[in-house]
Amino acid sequence: RGGGRSDVVKDPSMLTAASHVRDLEALRKHFRIQKMSLIGISWGSGLAALYADAHPERVGRIVFLDPMWPANKPYERQRSERIESLIAPKDAARLKEIENEWETASDDQMRAMCMERFRILLGPYLFNPSSYDASRPEATIVGREIAGICSVPPAAIRNLDHVADAAMSSLGDFDFRPMLAKLKVPVLVVEGEKSNVPLDATREWVKAVPGARLLLIPGAGHMALEEKPEAVHEIGAFLSGQWPPTANEIRGSK
Fold it and tell me: For 41-53, b where at least 16 C-beta lie within 10 A, e where not — what string?
């Protein structure tokens, strides 16, 4: 809603987390799905948790893939400080320049600025940052992912931050853990073993859900599936009813 190739929506009251939950339920009804498995990537993990809380009878299994922070305090600050510390000063300065130019840039400039911005922002989330330079012919799937994000209409690119800010603001000072404790479906949490995202926050997702397990992907950072796409087979096994052999429960989980 409000991004990609969808209609550009600017009213923040129509871009709340609750709006996204309603959209997901509308999608389920459209395809007449009685019960579905959910794979929530990053913020999508928060959306999957919110949907499962609102419609528990419609969810069979959940994968929280490279999840966002499970609670604002202290995990949002910890992640922000860690990621910002890994951005080179010249890149941080360039981000400020792009931010100042964002609203006034021409449509022709937007795609190039979008790709440069994501090149800088996504670097700390990868174990091998050199693998995602989309300008190189040998660019990996990560580079193509950035190119895809930035291939949408310029109006949608301009609206990216507005959409994200509206959803996050609607959550307030949130803590998903009490809600996660009520889940009664199998849950797999997936993260890259070499992630720069503090793993203490990722483990909180596992500890909060009764019987959940954590799968760490070797040789991958926070964007685990982009760096190690073969990990999708592990997720597929879970969705088919089997725990991946290297997925572990965490001491302290219920």
Answer: bbbbbbbbbbbbb
- In the structure encoding, which two tokens stand for residue 11, read together? 């009213």
Q: What is the DSSP letter of 64?
A: E
Residue type, 73: K
**Pairing state of beta strands 187-192 and 59-65?**
parallel
The whole-model pTM stands at 0.90
Beta-carbon contacts of 11 under 8 Å, excluding residues fewer than 6 positions away, are none
Burial class (CB in 10 A: 0-12, 13-18, 19+), 178: exposed
Collapsing DSSP states into helix, strand and coil, what is residue 193? Answer: coil
User: What span, in angstroms and rounded, lies between the C-alpha atoms of 169 and 62?
Assistant: 24
**Which tokens hold the place of 137?**
């012919």
Terminus-to-terminus CA distance in the chain, angstroms? 35
Report pLDDT digits (tens) over 89-110: 999 999 999 999 988 999 989 9
Q: Which residues pair with 175 in a beta bridge?
A: 71
Taking the C-alpha atoms of residue 91 and residue 103, their distance in angstroms, rounded to an integer, is: 19
- Using alpha carbons, select from 196, 155, 190, 178 the residue that is nearest to residue 44: 190
